[in-house]
Write a structure and sequence with these properties.
3-stranded antiparallel beta sheet, alpha+beta
């Protein structure tokens, strides 16, 4: 029997639940493995609710454990488990021009520390985009940026602090071109490992990197998109003192318009008309 859920669970081939991909978001419950606690024979009307309840409980328990990431940590006395202790050893997490509000709210916003038997473990409360979605709304718009759709928020954002707005890992165009440009100095491609090293020590599969649309710019990296000679850096003619960047014409996460054009723009020609009368 197939039962659909809003999230997938990790593979457990020897148990009652077998996970599919996160896109499938369904689990298979083996009916012949579920037996009543007593020899009372259950009717179909009674068995189905019990089956659904059992599957839901199993799913919840499995997802709670397996969607988290736990790492070992040097021992901390239980009484000392608090943000102040964390930041004593990790002061860089709060030092930067732009600090994530989660850091100022307390490390326990995203991490859970536990000490027992002279051992300390640190557990992320969720992984990838699921962790970010605990505070940040995930927009259900039809056009989604690849990393945003895949929950790869940290590919573009530092979760703690940065020298750039929104905890970006680099200046806007440098960040965008790390995927959408070619021959970028901070991007290292390892075809043997099928991995690409990105900004901030992040990695991307070679397949995902190759599928990211690439644009061709001139040697200065400031002109050439969407047509030859068109500037992608400098001053935005629509706003005084505002810089021209990729975000002048594209939204970074989602949109209702193709190519992540701003939602209030219905076509690329309409966008061009904002500068070119």
């Amino acid at each position: 029997m197939w039962i659909a859920f809003t999230n997938s669970v990790a593979d457990n081939r020897d148990g009652d639940i077998v996970a599919l991909s996160s896109q499938t978001r369904a689990v298979f419950v083996s009916m012949d493995r579920i037996e009543p606690a007593s020899p009372v024979k259950l009717s179909d009307k009674t068995a189905l609710p019990l089956l659904l309840l059992s599957a839901t409980l199993l799913f919840g328990l499995t997802r709670t454990v397996l969607s988290q990431v736990t790492t070992e940590h040097p021992f901390i006395e239980p009484k000392d488990i608090k943000s102040e202790t964390c930041l004593t050893c990790h002061p860089d997490k709060k030092e930067g021009k732009f600090v994530h509000t989660a850091v100022t709210s307390g490390c326990e916003s995203c991490h859970q520390a536990a000490s027992q038997n002279s051992k300390t473990t640190i557990t992320l409360l969720a992984t990838g985009g699921e962790l970010c979605a605990r505070c940040h709304e995930i927009k259900p718009e039809p056009v989604l940026h690849g990393p945003y759709k895949a929950g790869q928020c940290m590919l573009c954002h530092n979760p703690h602090m940065s020298s750039f707005p929104s905890q970006l890992r680099a200046e806007t165009n440098t960040l965008c071109l790390s995927c959408h440009g070619v021959n970028q100095p901070d991007v290292k491609i390892n075809k043997d490992a099928q991995k690409v090293s990105m900004l901030g020590g992040q990695t991307l599969s070679f397949t995902d990197y190759r599928q990211s649309p690439k644009i061709g710019l001139d040697r200065s990296g400031t002109r050439g998109h969407p047509i030859l000679g068109h500037p992608v850096a400098g001053k935005d003619p629509r706003q005084k003192d505002a810089p021209l960047s990729c975000l002048s014409c594209h939204t970074p996460h989602s949109s209702t318009v193709a190519n992540l054009l701003p939602p209030d723009i219905k076509s690329s020609t309409g966008l061009c008309g904002e500068c070119h009368q």
